[in-house]
Amino acid sequence: MNLDIREIPFSRFGSYFCISMERDCKDVYIRDVHGGDEAPSRLFKLEFLQDGQTKDVEVEATETSLTFRIKEDPSSYVEFIIPEEDELHIEVNGIELRLTDKKVKYDSLMEIEDGMYEYHIYPKELKLMIMKLEGEMTVHAPWKIIGNDFIDIRMNNGHFVIESYRTVYQKKDYLPFNEGKQQVERIYHEWFGKFSNGDETYLPSIERASYITWSSVVHPHGILKDYAMYMSKLWMYNIWSWDNCFNALNLGKHYPELAYAQLEAFIDKQDESGAYPDFINDKYISYNCVKPPIFALAYEKLMEINDYFQEQTRLRKVYESTKRVALYFENYRTYPNRLPHYKHGNDSGWDNASLFHVGMPVEAPDLASFLIRTYDILANFAEKLGEVEQANLFKQKADSLYELLMDRLHDENGFFGRVGKNAEKISIRSSLILRLPVIIGYRLDEKVMARLVADLETDFETQFGLATESLTSPYHKENGYWLGPIWAPVTYLFIDSLRKYGYEKIANRVRDKFLELTLVGGMAENFDPLTGKGLVDTSFTWTSSVFLLLHEDKWLEE
């Protein structure tokens, strides 16, 4: 694959290193994604010189190597590989590579031995060892009381390594450059082989999705006790709850241990209240928002995909954790005689959807539906675990919540929300989120389900799929995040539910539209519903995971 590093960073499975180009100014940076997307990621700006003059370069990027060649002298190049998770290797030939830092107060670089410099990066609590294995390296980094004034590193004709670590550097032997390149190629091709199936029609999307999911994984570090698939290494480098569930679903068939780890990361950090974190990275945990309960739904599907998830100890852990999640919504998100509520649009995952434009808190039919589905699944889990009384209790809870949903948030015109301490009816009904009760289509009256499907086809379906805000709505906005653009995870939920509950024709049609959409807009965070253009973060894992899931579904069908 020819990788565009303006859209998809160059990285590898397990690594916090990545290299990307700024979209506007075309500056290239070595970056590090420790600390999540609120932490500074730029380590060094790259410049390519000959005879002291900055030269324009051609970028040649594949899944496993990144090369910059002088336009007027293609034999002169700099090549980057990441043969080990914490090692960035650089081969320089006929060019002077210049690295200048983005340092802040207290950041400091010191020479440890000839050709070895240790760089302490304070905001990231990270150290780098920058070393020459062969060739010539010069460093200009004048000291100024508490740190270097600036750092300017030059590398010429040789093999160089930048290694990251937290506390102490351990000396080692490094692979020769070509052997390191062969090693990372073997690792990637094994991964790609699990997700490719010879389909030439969607090969560009298969390549892109496979690479993004592989390269967006980071290794255990700090808070992260296992490998975690970040949403992206471009901008959104955290692991979010409910995003992680779609990535787990894609991993479940071929990499069940890694899939389970994506769920376990949140289960192990569950608050005593029962709430899961909103997001996690190696340094931070945030509970500011609490996503709707979707883990049980995801785990039920994982049990269908791979017997690994049927194992009683794993099922028990998910079951007990999900019970605590349900209690959180009962105890802390539900007023007497009402339905559970959101306190912010971000709670729902639909951050700025029109349903949330009036105020907070909001009783929303999607949240109630997720909880109903969760109780029904918990009843199934309880039966598998031999807890018959608990199964009956969960079934009763689901029944009661369903009756309340239909009483409070449904009328002759469909579903709606309620807002504020007085639970006033929200008149805005133009968001796709109000059609998410399709996930409990097995409970809905046939006429109610038919009305939801008719809404989808009439008000939301476009050439490329399901817009998140009705195309006729005054709230519909170009590049409006959840006010129109198409999103992969909700597309998946609709397709899955429609197929399960008797609407296979529209399910397959929306699936095929989404597959085609990726050939236009790539694996972006979301997409323009009218043009298919990829929007916001253009290197997103849950989009990639949903594509791979839906593509396999179509491939097996044919």
TrEMBL record:
Matches recorded under Pfam families: MGH1-like_GH
Mannosylglycerate hydrolase MGH1-like glycoside hydrolase domain segment(s): 237-543
Molecular function as annotated in GO: Glc3Man9GlcNAc2 oligosaccharide glucosidase activity
Any one Gene Ontology BP term: protein N-linked glycosylation
Alphabetic keyword roster: Glycosidase, Hydrolase
Superkingdom of the organism of origin: Bacteria
Family named by the database record: Belongs to the glycosyl hydrolase 63 family.
Protein name as it appears in the record: Mannosylglycerate hydrolase MGH1-like glycoside hydrolase domain-containing protein
Organism of origin: Pseudoneobacillus rhizosphaerae
